[in-house]
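Run log, item B.
One chain of 108 residues. Sequence copied directly from the ordering sheet:
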Amino acid sequence: MLYELREYTVVPGRLPALIARFTDHTLGLFDKHGFDIAFMSHTEFGENSIGEVVYAVRWESYQQMQDGWAAFMTDPEWQRVKAESERDGPLNSAVRRRLLNTAPFDGR
């Protein structure tokens, strides 16, 4: 099992717009393209706690992850939603992405 951990640092003042984009559009598109969201959160305490959204996607394989993101990024609905939501500028100032592999611990 692979977990893709994604951390979005939000442009100051744009957190409500990013959350709305996820809840109104992105999560539905994730479902459409087979994303298995393990969790999604807003950081309430610690570094970047004012403007950070963190989520993890559970993948069966690296290939599934590659195919899922390729389909999502080229989806015309996503391209439209992204363009409309960023009409007044980007929502994120940085995206940090890590791939976590549980295989070494599966025998526990």
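Observations after the first pass:
- The beta strands are 2-10, 36-42, 52-59, 92-101.
- The mean pLDDT is 93.
Flagged for discussion on Thursday.
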